[in-house]
Structure formats: C-alpha cells, structure tokens
Design goal:
Number of strands: 16
Shape: elongated
CATH superfamily of the largest domain: Bira Bifunctional Protein, Domain 2
Oligomer: single chain
Structural class: alpha+beta
Radius of gyration: 27 Å
Order of helices and strands: HHHHEHHHEEHEEHEEEHEEEHEEEHEE
Number of domains: 2
Largest sheet: 8 strands, mixed
Number of helices: 12
Strand order of the largest sheet: 1-9-10-11-14-8-7-2
Helix content: 25-40%
C-alpha cells in the first residue's frame, strides 16, 4: 500500500506510475477524500475541545449550585454533532482505505516503461541441447512412459489438473526435496511448513486482495482462501509484528501446493503441464532492511538460478516491464527455462522486490537499534523454483531417442540411484 501522504506529496510521480502500468485510478477523488477526512478530523477535535470545556463549566456550575441547564443543553448538542461527525469520519476512512488498496506499487526507476514487449533479457545461460532426433513434447513422453495421466486427472477434478504416477510422482517429490535441501544448505534459508488455506487479512497483506479475488479458490462459508503461492502465508508470518533490527535479514523457504483459477486464461497454453490450476512450488521469502533490498533482490535471483544451473538446464533472466509487473512489485526478474519439445521458453520463477508495499498492508515493522525508530521492512520473494514447468524442461531436455528420460545427476540420490525413466 502507498502511504496517502506520499501520494499527496508526489502526485505526478504516482500518476506517471499508473500511466506506465496502464492502470486507471481516479487519484483526484482519493486526494479529495483525504482532504475531507482531514477537515472532518479537525472539526472533531474542535468539538471535543468544546465538549471538554462544557464539562468543566457544568462541573463548576454544579459546585457553585448555579443553574447548568443551558450549558447541559449546549453540551448535548455538541455531543450529537460529534457523534454524527464520528460516523462520517469512519465512512470516509473506510472508503479511502478501500481505494488505497487498489493503487499498485511504484515501479523502480530501472524498470522499462511499457508493455511486455519491452521486457529485457539480461542474460542467457547454457546452450540449448542439440538433438540427433526430433524431440517430442512432455505430453507425448507422459503417454509413452505412463508418468502423468491427464485424462484421469480431468475425471477426478476437471480440466487443467494433473495426476502424476509412478516415476512421475517420484520425480516431482525428488525435485521438491532437492530444492529445499539445496536452499537450506547453500543459501541459509529457514524451512517453514505453512497452511494451504489463509484468511482474507493474509491475502490483503500481500496484495492478492482485493485485486485478484476472481483468480482465487475461496471457501466463502469459512472466510478462507486456497493459497496461490506460499508467499502469502510466509510473508504474513510477521503480520502486525515489530522485529528487532538485529533479526534482519530473515530468509524463509517453504514448499506448498498452489491453487489458481487463472480467470481469463482459458484456451491459452492449456494442454499438458504449461498452465494448471494446482501445482507445487518451493518459495523463497526475505524480510530485509530498506537499504539492502535491491542487493537482496540480485541475491534472490542468484539463489533461484542456482537450481537451474545444477540441473544443467538452459535458462534466461528477464527484467519485466512496468505493464508486466505484478500489482505489488517494484521490480521483478523472471527466470525462463527452455523446453526442447515445445520449443518454448517457460517461466519457472518470478523474483520480486516489493519494497515496503506489502509491509505497510501487513503492518510489518522493525525497530532501529540506535534511534529506536520504527520502519517498515522491505519484503522480497521468488520461486525457488516452481513445478510443473520445471518437470516439462527436464522431460523434454533430457529425453533420449528410445523414449526414455535421463535423470539429472543431482536428483539421483533422491530416486534410489535411478539414472533413467523408461
């Protein structure tokens, strides 16, 4: 959330941000409401002052055994006016807060302004594999090897759900365990195991509500939502808390299933594993001091990249433009891996710096050691990395002419030393 004072003092900057994001919001109305709020609060303070004076006067009149009827009547009128203004103030603040929740974060100055066509490839790592046969897609490989059953998944639930079987299920589990172990051993993340259901406050804290409610699966009777990513529960671990400066930075990681309705995406890359409603992911989340957040973003990207490097997969790092940024992000790098059978680059991680945007919404602060002042932390998160597109890349890039799949060496200890799926 952007602070209303920041918006008022930097209106042109916020207007430019909205234009760069191609978002239309009536800032004038928001600022008018804020002025009205301040005026009503000032009137309330004056009425409270008058009420206190009237109380003192009534007390003195009664002590002196004088007639206080006129003053009492005056105080009642003041009290009635105060009650009306308090109701008006609550309504104004409620509307204002709802509107502020719809204002997206400011993009960092280093982010290209414009559409996704202006996304910038920062670097490409490893070369695409050269095959001496025509590679096939993971869909065809799945049918031949019996590792994923799309038809029965549709029978169980519906389209765009997945049923992993046998070595497919084991590969999925091996990847999750490998990534958790790797990030803990090499990058110092603390593992947490979070609920897959969260309340509306948690969704609001990270920016999913109210913006993306239509993309979520909700249990309305319970006021709960299936998480779209472990970012939501992990970031909200410290909601409404004050951290000590010495505790920062905090690095958390966690596995979760992720649930997304993906409203409006039907018909787009919906075959196979490319776009599904439930998938697994290892998430990395950081709580850091503001001065360190952009250095921590580069480190976060490197942490996620390391997974792709040891799996020896071709990938690239892409800096997203303003119109491709998520609602809450100031700057995001996507990691895209190449899938040989599909001949496509597939996003497997988005690493983002949210600056203080989420921390303001979730009220996560830290106390400076020397000054004792309170500041909002900066939050960052990135997939480290997401499945099942990682499974696509492994299957399609490690396939052999006989239809088997070579298992990447770093995963073999998680699969009883198995070298191939055949």
């Amino acid at each position: 959330m952007l602070d209303i004072r920041f918006i008022a003092e930097n209106k042109k900057l916020v207007e430019k941000s909205l234009k760069d994001r191609n978002v239309k919001i009536d800032l004038d109305y928001i600022l008018e409401l804020n002025e009205k709020r301040k005026k009503v609060l000032a009137e309330l303070d004056e009425l409270r002052r008058k009420q206190n004076l009237a109380n003192d006067e009534i007390t003195n009149l009664l002590k002196e055994k004088k007639d206080a009827k006129e003053t009492i009547a005056s105080m009642k009128a003041i009290s009635h006016a105060k009650d009306k203004l308090e109701d008006e103030s609550k309504n104004i603040i409620s509307v204002l807060n709802k509107l502020l929740l719809t204002v997206p974060n400011l993009p960092d100055l280093s982010v290209p302004a414009g559409t996704a066509e202006l996304n910038k490839i920062i670097r490409t790592e490893a070369e695409k594999r050269k095959f001496d046969f025509k590679p096939i897609t993971h869909i065809e490989l799945s049918e031949q090897l019996g590792v994923i059953d799309f038809a029965r998944a549709a029978k169980l639930t519906g389209s765009n759900f997945v049923l992993f079987k046998g070595w497919g299920a084991r590969l999925e589990r091996a990847l999750i365990n490998f990534m958790l172990d790797f990030h803990q051993q090499h990058h110092g993340y603390k593992e947490v195991n979070v609920p897959f259901l969260v309340n509306a406050d948690s969704m609001t804290g990270t920016g999913q509500l109210p913006k993306m409610e239509e993309d979520m699966y909700a249990l309305k009777e319970d006021g709960l939502y299936l998480i779209p990513t472990a970012e939501v529960p992990i970031t909200n671990i410290h909601r409404n808390e004050i951290l000590d400066e010495e505790a920062l930075p905090i690095y958390y990681m966690g596995y979760s299933a992720c649930f997304r309705r993906e409203a409006g995406s039907y018909g787009k890359d919906t075959r196979g594993l490319s776009r599904v409603h439930q998938f697994d992911k290892v998430e990395l989340v950081k709580f850091v001091k503001p001065a360190d957040s952009y250095k921590e973003l580069e480190s976060l990207v490197n942490n996620a990249e390391a997974i792709l490097k040891v799996l020896e997969l071709p990938y690239r790092v892409v800096l997203l433009s303003t119109q491709d940024l998520s609602f809450a992000s100031s700057k995001t790098y996507d990691l895209e891996i190449y899938a040989s059978g599909m001949d496509k680059w597939l996003e497997v991680s988005s690493c983002s710096n949210f600056e203080s945007f989420q921390a303001r919404r979730a009220n996560i602060r830290f106390r400076e050691k020397e000054t004792k002042k309170l500041q909002y932390v900066h939050t960052l998160n990135g997939s480290g990395v997401a499945l099942p597109r990682l499974v696509i890349a492994i299957m399609e890039n490690y396939q052999n002419s006989d239809g088997s799949i070579t298992i990447p060496e770093v995963l073999r200890k998680y699969l009883d030393g198995q070298t191939k799926i055949s």
